[in-house]
Design brief:
With 288 residues, the protein is mainly α. Helices cover 56% and strands 7% of the residues. The chain has a three-stranded mixed beta sheet with strand order 3-5-4, sandwiched between helices. A two-stranded antiparallel ribbon has the order 1-2. It is globular and about 50 Å long.
Length: 288
């Protein structure tokens, strides 16, 4: 039985307040125990929402963003971004989850940002193309965002939000069709910069996404050393005002150190990828 079905529980009307509190706490503890999951990197995290539900929510959020934000019409730019994204997604390890990804380039030059959502949705804003100066640097961001999805960090954030509130009704409201459009939900899914509710990922989630994303770009045939160049560019861009990407993906000095520490393994994966013929050719538009 899906964990979501548990939220239909209601205590009998004759049950006293103290009894209802005990039952609610017991139910909450049972949910927390049942909802613990292990990520692909071996870290334990809370996961209370069925993956199918997360995918529907991700698809809904993606449709809402597409309604509100104009898309790039320039074919060369669209082809470039699609080439990089598809090089990454086509090399992802098979895990029974999303394999087909929808890719959209949004025309918003002042927004240095990108996202990936459950359900197989990727959005790239044109402002990012000014900071990610090479295909490999763009692949760094794409791989990082896809890693957040593969690691189910949005599910963990929503589950943790529910657990800290310790209320059954809140989760029920969060999962309602109307409430899927709520700004808080979008922020928990990683779209904080888009809706003005800044909820940064935790340091452990960021580190996980950095390490796994480094592997993803390497097995796709992109030089993982470009990840360090990308974050150095992000740091420079922050001098003109922090990019939106940094508002929900805090850039700490330890981030580059973590990438450097994991480069040896990523370089080995990169060498194997190139030896097997993976060498993405994604020409960057001259206008970028």
């Amino acid at each position: 039985m899906s964990l979501i079905h548990v939220f239909r529980f209601s205590a009998p009307s004759r049950t006293g307040p103290a009894r209802r509190i005990v039952l609610t706490l017991c139910l909450l503890l049972a949910l927390l125990a049942a909802g613990c999951a292990t990520t692909p990197t071996g870290r334990r995290q809370l996961k209370l929402i069925a993956p199918e539900r997360m995918q529907r929510m991700g698809n809904q959020a993606y449709r809402e963003i597409k309604k509100e934000t104009p898309e790039v019409e320039d074919k060369a730019t669209r082809d470039y971004v699609r080439c990089v994204c598809e090089a990454v997604t086509s090399a992802l390890p098979r895990n029974g989850k999303t394999q087909d990804w929808r890719i959209t380039v949004f025309r918003k030059g002042d927004m240095i940002n990108a996202f990936a959502l459950p359900g197989g949705n990727i959005g790239i804003y044109t402002g990012l193309l000014e900071v990610a100066e090479t295909p490999a640097q763009l692949a760094t961001v794409v791989s990082h965002e896809i890693a957040h999805v593969r690691l189910e960090h949005a599910n963990a954030r929503m589950s943790a939000s529910f657990a800290t509130q310790a209320g059954i009704g809140l989760m029920g409201a969060m999962l309602g069709i109307e409430k899927e459009r709520d700004r808080q939900i979008l922020a928990l899914m990683g779209l904080g910069a888009q809706v003005g509710v800044i909820l940064p990922y935790t340091r452990s989630q960021e580190t996980e996404a950095d390490v796994l994303g480094l592997e993803y770009m390497a097995i796709a045939g992109f030089d993982p050393a470009a990840s360090i160049e990308l974050w150095q560019n992000m740091r420079k861009a922050a001098g003109k005002g922090p990019p939106e990407f940094l508002s929900t993906h805090p850039s700490k000095g330890t981030r580059i150190d973590t990438l450097r520490k994991n480069l040896p393994r990523a370089r080995e994966l990169f060498r194997k990828a190139r030896a097997s013929g993976r060498n993405p050719q994604c020409p960057r538009p001259q206008s970028q």
